[in-house]
Amino acid sequence: MIKYLEHLVQATSVEGVWRLHCEKMAGYGFDRLLYGFTRFHSAHGFGDRKDFLIMTNHDPAYVEGFINEGLYFNAPMVRWAVENHGACSWSWLAEQHDNLSPQERKVLDFNAHHDVIAGYSISFRDASIRNKGAIGLTARRGMTQDDVEEIWAEHGRDLTVMNTVAHLKMIQLPYSTPSRQLTKRQCEALEWVRDGKTIQDAAAIMGLTPVTVEKHLRLAREALDVETTAQAVLKASLQNQIFVLEQ
User: pLDDT tens-digit profile of 69-88?
Assistant: First the structure.
């Protein structure tokens, strides 16, 4: 585990962390993972899905239904993750069977169709009520929940630590969807604004005209889907897109 954690903390991209983590979890029998994180959680939902950090190695058909068609919103284990923190066996679903809504039962049927039937979920604690991150570890096809419980009894503490470190590493790295990825100039313009510089100050520092700086700020606002530059600075900061060392 130490060797894995050493490689993990040295990774310089979310994708790099994810590749390492998927490989490590597969070694324990969890060959399909689904990780999600948002900084915009509230009592009304998870915010704009385009702002989520979602990583998964599930097959495309499962991702299409569970993520793109929004089944996750009624998933019982997602509800558990929102309301709790720590690790939870999927045996919890059997205990809740009589209390599940029709929408939640629909999700379980969908999962069963895709052999997503045995596993564990981990919900990560955060100091901010707006942040919510969790991961679902799906056991290899053919494994039962009893098989998973045996693995967890022996390796549960290690698995919880490894998943938590992977989560903490990913959320401190830059992330965004391709449509919301800022250019170097857009990042630089936002950085100077965050430092309290005026458009004229930023233009002089960057060697550009004020009109060009404003263009970069406008494009940054559009990419981040916000109305004001202050909002763009905040969202870019939350997504770790500004003040980032070049690798």
Answer: 999 999 999 999 999 999 99
Which one, of 186, 240, 181, lies nearest residue 12 by Cα?
A: 240
pLDDT tens for each residue of 3-18 = 999 999 999 989 999 9
Domain spanning 2-170, CATH class = alpha beta
Q: How far apart are CA 239 and CA 132, in angstroms?
A: 14
User: What is the residue extent of each domain of the chain?
Assistant: 2-170, 178-238
Closest C-alpha among 66, 68, 63, 34 to residue 49: 68
The two three-digit tokens of residue 86, written as one number: 């720590």
Q: What is the DSSP string of 19-36?
A: HHHHHHHHTTT--EEEEE
For 175, other C-beta atoms within 10 Å of its C-beta total 22
Contact 36, 53 (CB under 8 A): yes
C-beta separation of 172 from 13 below 8 A: no
Q: Which CATH class is domain 178-238?
A: mainly alpha
Question: What number of residues does the chain have?
Answer: 247
Give dist(CA 217, CA 149) in Å, integer. 52
In whole angstroms, give the CA distance from residue 190 to residue 242: 7
Of 131-135, 163-167, 175-179, 238-242, the poorest mean pLDDT is in 175-179
Distance CA 200, CA 198 (A): 5
Contact 95, 71 (CB under 8 A): no
DSSP-assigned letters across all residues of 54-97: EEE-S-HHHHIIIIIT-GGGG-HHHHHHHH--EEEETHHHHHTG
Kind plus residue range of the DSSP H or E element containing 135:
strand 132-138
